Amino acid sequence: xxKSLVKEIGPEATKADEPIxxxxxxxxxxxxxxxxxxxxxxxxxxxxxxxGNTISFGNQEYTIKKVGPMANKFLNEMGHVSIVFSAVPVxxxxxxxxxxxxxxxxxxSDGMVISYS
Length: 117
Fold this sequence. Notes:
single chain, mainly beta, M1 Pyruvate Kinase, Domain 3, eight-stranded mixed β-barrel, 2 helices, 8 strands, 10% helix, globular
């Protein structure tokens, strides 16, 4: 299990009408920070997420239905991934995304633990 800690939540990071949360580590640029959840991952964590794995925001658990081809690479390099709370599209799938169920945005707060297993 890999854990990360929510450090900052941009004012535009969670919107009920947009079923996506963008995670970045603390290297995120100032221009993107308003739209992201900034998190700090455990030292030496190596992501290799796959379909059927889970992500938990505190006690809110989600099942990964699809892992974009660049998702693990970006998570490992810059703590970046887009978590999409809707069905996997037939076309125009995000390469850096984790598509998850249920299709409901989590409630996120500063200091919250995000767990990947």
